Inverse folding.
């Protein structure tokens, strides 16, 4: 079988046989729709779509692509792969934005889902590459977990980019997939690895379509959790996850994400706590304190730290407060602090010193503390 070549290139020889699939169509419900939003993706799209063709999934599968006002050769690459994929029994649905202006990733993903028909949705970014067993293994997991977002482990490209983040993605325990949802890393299973049922996707309610600057995956993930959704990771590396300056992630402001994280923390955790300690008397801990609602600021009984200079100061004065006298929050050593804690110390940055200190307290994550780092 011939492979569709890069735009402007010649077709190459196929490297591996594609297993026969039942034809999708009348009497054959599509099991999995691979959802690919595209915007000016010609550099990576060939490899991405080839990875759809190389899936070893033997049930019915379709590709649903939405081209969001690309101005490069993306449309031609999609058309080439449509022929190759349909020859292999994978129908291809192509939608496009009639406007010359892109409507954004959230809109493109929603449109790709709406025009598809699969019982399950497999999300794939146009700059990433699936391993051949991805759809099969995630489909097996999703059947057992109808209300879950299913993720997987990833391999970062280039390998030395975002090392801490990649380690975090790949090594969270099953419990931490739900307890570490408040950190600056975002969703505990990353969006390009998501796999879920179509029914659950629409129950959660689609992606935010605000466009550039909106963290649509984070907002969807938070809604998913608020509706009782679960999170599961297939512990195999099933995606080559690319890092490059053009990635849509870079268009979201840190302040926007911070505000969403704080509100989510207040809603999910602080609403049921009567008091708590912020672990970090430095910049990040104080920033969290200032970002809290007035009612939640009143619940902060202390800051704790290991830095003797900060501890010697004795307290933090909230100068921006209109209260008189201004609130003064005690600062103490972490061993003298009272749980529960909201921890504003970054993980995996202190050569294990912070993790060791935390471990000595014999606390339970998700009950005695949450990370907000």
């Amino acid at each position: 079988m011939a492979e569709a070549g890069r735009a402007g290139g010649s077709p190459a020889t196929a490297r591996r046989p594609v297993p026969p699939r039942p034809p999708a169509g009348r009497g054959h419900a599509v099991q999995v729709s691979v959802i690919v939003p595209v915007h000016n993706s010609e550099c990576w799209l060939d490899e991405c779509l080839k990875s759809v063709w190389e899936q070893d999934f033997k049930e019915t599968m379709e590709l649903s692509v939405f081209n969001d006002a690309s101005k490069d050769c993306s449309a031609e690459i999609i058309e080439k792969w449509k022929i190759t994929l349909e020859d292999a029994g994978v129908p291809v649905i192509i939608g496009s934005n009639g406007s010359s202006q892109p409507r954004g990733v959230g809109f493109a993903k929603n449109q790709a889902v709406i025009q598809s028909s699969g019982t399950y949705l497999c999300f794939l970014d146009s700059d990433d590459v699936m391993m051949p067993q991805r759809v099969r293994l995630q489909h097996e997991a999703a059947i057992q977990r109808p209300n879950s977002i299913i993720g997987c482990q990833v391999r970062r490209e280039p390998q030395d980019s975002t090392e801490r983040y990649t380690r975090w993605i790949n090594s969270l325990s099953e419990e931490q997939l739900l307890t570490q949802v408040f950190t600056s890393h975002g969703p505990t299973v990353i969006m390009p690895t998501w796999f879920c049922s179509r029914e659950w996707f629409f129950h959660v309610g689609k992606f935010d379509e605000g466009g550039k600057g909106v963290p649509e995956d984070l907002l969807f993930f938070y809604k998913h959790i608020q509706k009782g959704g679960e999170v599961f990771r297939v512990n195999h590396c099933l995606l080559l996850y690319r890092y490059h300056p053009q990635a849509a992630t870079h268009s979201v402001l840190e302040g926007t994400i911070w505000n969403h994280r704080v509100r989510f923390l207040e809603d999910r955790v602080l609403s049921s706590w009567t008091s708590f300690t912020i672990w970090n008397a430095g910049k990040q801990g104080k920033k969290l304190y200032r970002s809290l609602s007035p009612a939640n600021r009143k619940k902060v009984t202390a800051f704790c730290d290991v830095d003797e200079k900060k501890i010697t100061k004795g307290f933090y004065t909230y100068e921006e407060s209109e209260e008189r006298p201004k609130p003064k929050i005690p600062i103490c050593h972490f061993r003298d602090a009272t749980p529960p804690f909201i921890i504003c110390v970054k993980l995996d940055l202190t050569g294990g010193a912070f993790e060791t200190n935390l471990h000595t307290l014999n606390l339970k994550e998700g009950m005695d503390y949450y990370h907000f780092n």
Q: What stands out?
A: Residues 29 and 249 are 34 Å apart (CA to CA). The first helix runs from residue 42 to 53.
